[in-house]
Design brief:
It is flat and about 175 Å long. Strands 2, 4, 5, 8, 9 and 10 form a six-stranded mixed β-sheet that branches. It has a five-stranded mixed β-sheet with strand order 12-18-17-14-15, with no helix packed on it. Strands 19-27-26-25-23 form a five-stranded antiparallel β-sheet, with helices on one face. It folds into four domains: about 45 residues; about 120 residues, Immunoglobulins (Immunoglobulin-like); about 80 residues, SoxY domain (Immunoglobulin-like, Sandwich); about 120 residues, no CATH class. Helices cover about 15% and strands about 45% of the residues. The protein contains four helices and 27 strands. It is mainly β. About 20% of the residues have low confidence.
Length: about 425
């Protein structure tokens, strides 16, 4: 091969080597750009960048788990913790409750007919159940029933029972009338008087109205068969004065209708208050009770008669008064025959003493009638009673007149008891 040909071949080899070197350099410069483009494409599927975003060599933060930021707002953290939203209702609600005052509603007494005590053997209901709804439920601190028995001798007892939760918003309490009623009613028929007292968590209180349930005395001895009408009792006072109001009572079994002096009255157990005319004194006065059986006509009629003596009318006046009674001072109840009580603020409490033959008996926190006070005092009395604000006390004066005393307020000086006094009012029925 001549020298010219060798030169041509060497020149061609040089060109090929130069071309290979240039291609390698171009590939090396393109590699970083390809990596950024791939990373940008991956970010566009997880974050907010698009595939058309210009590639960058700076690493892109993965925003797949970062909440999107609304347009026009920055990413600075909040300076306060947001208030937790209520589960339901408006801004003053929580669940199904509200922030209003505590209320008592839907009061129900079971059984809804009658309840019994005594020698009962025919499946009579002897347990009373009282239920009510208290709202709002989350405000209830406590619920209590207060109750008493009302019979011929008046109201007796100051019983109470805590109520228990029966369901959502409902409270209940049980009264074992079959066990309790024998002492206060003494074998007589009467009523169970109940009210509910509730306290909320702020110490506020609410009371329901009085509720009443009939209470009957039963005996399995000597009762007639169901098909026979029987007039078991018909009673009243043996004497009274003209112008007095008397109470007649009766018990009848299996009657269709019952009549008192020809007027239809309660069928089973009844009471009737009768005002004796003021011009019938000095004579006997009678009442007739008749009952019809299941035939519902006079073919099955049974009857009873009550006779009583009526004295001439007595004149009565009412004496009332009020004021402050200081420690160790005495008070006359308005009949003008000497003082009847003394107030004493002792170390063991506040006390009323009797003087000049008067008598006292605690009645309760509701106003009695004079007739109820007469009945209470006839069943037992005391020469002293401990008192508190809102108490009613029955009394008999040294002259034999009856009435009641109400403690309206009490102002006690613990450092010097002689400065203590009570604010009171009294009501005396004076018989001439």
């Amino acid at each position: 091969m001549n020298r010219k040909n060798i030169s041509v071949i060497l020149m061609l080899v040089g060109l090929l080597v130069s071309a290979c070197t240039l291609s390698s350099a171009v590939a090396t410069e393109a590699a970083p750009g390809s990596e950024s483009s791939s990373q940008a494409e991956a970010t566009s599927t997880q974050g907010s960048s698009s595939a058309e975003t210009r590639p960058t060599k700076t690493p892109v933060q993965n925003t797949a788990n970062t909440p999107s930021q609304p347009s026009g707002q920055n990413n600075s953290p909040p300076t306060t913790v947001p208030t937790k939203a209520s589960s339901s209702g408006n801004s003053n609600s929580s669940g199904s409750s509200n922030n209003g005052p505590l209320t008592i509603s839907n009061i129900t007494m079971y059984p809804q007919g009658d309840v019994y005590y005594g020698n009962c053997g025919n499946g009579e209901e002897t347990m009373a159940n009282i239920q009510a709804t208290l709202d709002p439920l989350d405000k209830v601190a406590s619920a209590t029933i207060y109750y008493a028995y009302n019979g011929p001798s008046g109201m007796y007892g100051n019983y109470s029972k805590d109520m228990y939760k029966l369901g959502i918003g409902d409270y209940a309490a049980d009264i074992d009338v079959g066990v309790e009623a024998d002492f206060p009613l003494q074998g007589n028929d009467g009523t169970l008087e109940v009210y509910i007292h509730a306290v909320d968590k702020d110490g506020n209180t609410v009371d329901s109205n009085w509720q009443t349930l009939n209470v009957w005395h039963c005996s399995t001895v000597g009762q007639p068969p169901q098909e026979d009408v029987a007039l078991l009792s018909f009673t009243g006072p043996v004497s009274a004065s003209a112008g007095d109001t008397i109470t007649l009572e009766w018990e009848v079994l299996n009657a269709c209708k019952v009549f008192l002096n020809g007027d239809e009255v309660a069928v089973h157990v009844g009471t009737y208050d009768y005002a004796i005319p003021s011009d019938v004194g000095g004579q006997n006065y009678g009442f007739t009770l008749t009952a019809w059986g299941n035939s519902c006509d006079n073919s099955s009629e049974v009857g009873a008669y009550h006779d009583m003596w009526i004295d001439d009318a007595t004149q009565t006046t009412i004496e009332t008064g009020s004021g402050n009674l200081k420690d160790s001072f005495s008070l006359d109840f308005g009949d003008g025959n000497g003082d009847d009580i003394i107030f004493d603020h002792r170390s063991d409490g506040t006390v009323l003493y009797t003087v000049w033959g008067s008598e006292l008996k605690m009645y309760g926190t509701w106003e009695p009638s004079v007739a109820q006070c007469v009945s209470e005092l006839n069943s037992g009395s005391f020469t002293e009673v401990h008192i508190d604000v809102y108490d009613y006390i029955c009394y008999k004066t040294g002259s034999g007149n009856y009435g009641w005393l109400y403690i309206k307020g009490m102002f006690l000086d613990l450092d010097d008891r002689t400065n203590s006094y009570i604010d009171l009012s009294y009501h005396t029925e004076v018989t001439q």
